[in-house]
Every structure is written in C-alpha cells, then in structure tokens.
C-alpha cells in the first residue's frame, strides 16, 4: 500500500496535497480515529489560531505536530500522555497544547502560512495523521482606510439629513403659525366688517 504521508511530503501542488490529505482521512488506522473539524483555517496577522483535532484510540497516544512548507518539514511539538512535552525552537513561546491533541499558535505571521500535519501514534506503533491548511492574510490598511472614509461619509450624510429634517420641521411649524395668524386676522377683520355693517 502506498504511504500517502510520504507522497504528501514530496508533493508541491496544493490541490494534490489537499486531495491526498482528504484521502488519508478516509483510510484510518485500526484502533485510531482522527477527525479534523476545520481542515482549512483563514486568519489575519497577529491573531491566535487554534488547530483543532479530535481523536480516539486505546491508551495514551503520542501526538506530533509538524509544519510542512516548500523548505521541508519542521517539527513543532511532541507530547505523550500529557507528561513528556518537547517544543521545537522558534515555537517555545508561541505554541500551547491541549489534552485533546489540539494546539494553539499565538500571534501568527505570514511565515506561518502552510500545512500543519498532526500524527497520532499508539503505544503498539499504529498511527494515523491528518493535515490542516492555514492561510494567513496581512491586515490591509487600504481596507481600514476605506472603512474609515465610508463611516465618515455615512456620519456626515446622517448629520446632513438630520439637519434637513429639523430645518423642514421648523419651516412647517413657521408656515402653520403664519397661516394660523393670517386666518385669525382674517376672522377678526370679517367680524369687524360685520360689526361695522351691522352697527
């Protein structure tokens, strides 16, 4: 049987890499089940990212996380049964492991873009693995600038509309008051004429 893990190591095309990763999820090792709830994660620079997994197996397995890039494979963290933990240089203050096998990368950068492979190994030697794709985007200051300008225009438009409505209300009030005054004067003139004619 062809080892999909070794095939993925030599694979340079992202599409083929993802297909191989999905295929290996279907070919679970006996006694070990591994689930990746979120196989593709999108984040922005400086965020904390949780690479989440769920597994079930006999006993306390060894968990290994690796970063796979065009430069090769770099070990991130290895632990067994929660007791022995080995964190690689460059990740000492950036990675936190969870008992369920998940890891959290803090303050990610563009250099963290890529594929993250988790390997779950039983005491008997059986293992399974899966991959998570992490896409990191830089914060676009053009987007921030556009958002700020858009909000400023909306606020200015709201203020102008409010002023126009208030001005319209004042005009309507003054017109009604003027009409009421004119009508009162007309009624008064009519009454005076009636009194003059009748008197």
TrEMBL record:
Record keywords = Glycoprotein, Membrane, Signal, Transmembrane, Transmembrane helix
InterPro entries per UniProt = CD2/SLAM_rcpt (IPR015631), Ig-like_dom_sf (IPR036179), Ig-like_fold (IPR013783)
Entry's localization field: Membrane
The main location class comes to membrane
Top-rank taxon of the source lineage equals Eukaryota
Q: Does the keyword ATP-binding apply?
A: no
Q: Name one GO cellular component term.
A: plasma membrane
Q: Which SUPFAM superfamilies match?
A: Immunoglobulin (SSF48726)
User: What sections of the sequence does the record tag as coiled-coil?
Assistant: none
The yes or no answer to whether the keyword Membrane is present is: yes
TM ranges: 144-167
Under the heading Gene3D superfamilies, the entry gives:
Immunoglobulins (2.60.40.10)
What's this protein's name? Answer: V-set and transmembrane domain-containing protein 5
What is the organism of origin for this protein?
Answer: Pleurodeles waltl (Iberian ribbed newt)
């Amino acid at each position: 049987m062809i080892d999909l893990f070794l095939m993925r190591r030599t694979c340079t095309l992202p599409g083929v890499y993802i297909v191989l990763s999905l295929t290996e999820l279907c070919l679970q090792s006996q006694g070990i089940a591994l689930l990746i709830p979120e196989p593709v994660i999108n984040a922005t620079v400086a965020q904390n990212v949780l690479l989440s997994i769920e597994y079930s197996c006999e006993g306390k397995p060894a968990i290994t996380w690796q970063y796979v890039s065009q430069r090769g494979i770099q070990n991130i963290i290895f632990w067994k049964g929660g007791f022995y933990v080995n964190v690689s240089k460059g990740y000492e203050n950036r990675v936190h492991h969870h008992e369920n096998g998940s890891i959290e990368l803090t303050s990610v950068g563009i250099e963290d873009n890529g594929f993250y492979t988790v390997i779950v190994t039983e005491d008997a030697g059986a293992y399974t693995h899966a991959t998570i794709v992490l896409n990191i985007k830089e914060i676009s200051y053009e987007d921030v600038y556009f958002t700020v300008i858009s909000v400023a225009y909306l606020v200015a438009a709201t203020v102008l509309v409010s002023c126009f409505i208030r001005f319209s209300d004042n005009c309507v009030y003054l017109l009604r008051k003027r009409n009421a005054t004119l009508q009162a004067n007309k009624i008064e003139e009519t009454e005076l004429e009636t009194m003059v004619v009748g008197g």
